Amino acid sequence: MNADNKYNNVSDKQNIVYLSSGNKESHEMQDENEEYSYITVRFKKENFEKLLSYTNYANVEAKIRKIDIKYAPEDFIKGATMYFINAMLDDIEPNNPEIIKKLYETLPEFVPILMEASKQLEEIPKQGIEQLIECDGVMKNNIKKLMKERKMTQKELSELTGIDKSNLSIYMNNKSQPSIEFFLRIWHALEYPPLTQLLYKEKSS
């Protein structure tokens, strides 16, 4: 993220804009635009790389769903921040296990997996993604089919991904689709099959 992006992704509903670490213009910019507060955010490299993996997948997903949007790391930072703030403003107990689970469901040992999955996404031919973009319908997955081909049990997939078996059952039966992070974990466990094999679109009835 560089200084050229300092005006990007400014939401009318938010009044905080995140700049790249090392940017020296934040005070000067704040004087020019009093509507926003500018702050500097620093991340450890491994954490920022993880954030980029989220961003990368989110943009692929947006293309597949034909959503005209381009995500940047700032969007996830603002989203996570406002989620936590809104939880407190809505009198939701911050230490509630469900809140903690949603905010911190990523375990440290899965960081390398997310980073590797991000690299795999970058290497996917555009044609593979275009096939999914051009189709109309609701996004579905072939997790169960691919597991069967690999003779992989639900228990084994749960152990490989750290995802609870009950959640996996929901995804495998297409009752809901996994989050960005969980998708990357599952994709890794299935040894990165082509997206057109893992995902498909089903026409709405």
| Strand elements, count | 4
Biggest β-sheet, characterized? Answer: 2 strands, parallel
Q: Helix-strand pattern, N to C?
A: EHEHHHHHEHHHHHE
Q: Widest sheet: strand order?
A: 1-2
Taking pLDDT < 50 over at least 5 consecutive residues as the criterion, the unreliable ranges are 1-30
Describe the secondary-structure layout.
Elements: E1 16-19, H1 26-32, E2 37-40, H2 45-64, H3 73-89, H4 97-103, H5 111-122, H6 126-134, E3 138-141, H7 143-149, H8 154-161, H9 165-172, H10 180-189, H11 195-198, E4 199-202
Parallel strand pairs: 1-2
Antiparallel strand pairs: 3-4
Helix pairs in contact: 2-5, 5-10
Task: Explain what this protein looks like in three dimensions.
- By secondary structure, the protein is mainly alpha-helical.
- The protein is built from eleven helices and four strands, in the order βαβαααααβαααααβ.
- The strands form two sheets. It has a two-stranded parallel sheet. It has a two-stranded antiparallel sheet with strand order 3-4.
- Strand 1 (16-19), helix 1 (26-32) and strand 2 form a beta-alpha-beta unit.
- Helix 2 (45-64) packs across helix 5 (111-122) and helix 5 packs across helix 10 (180-189).
- The longest helix is centred in the N-terminal third of the chain and has 20 residues, at 45-64.
- The model is unreliable at 1-30 (pLDDT under 50).
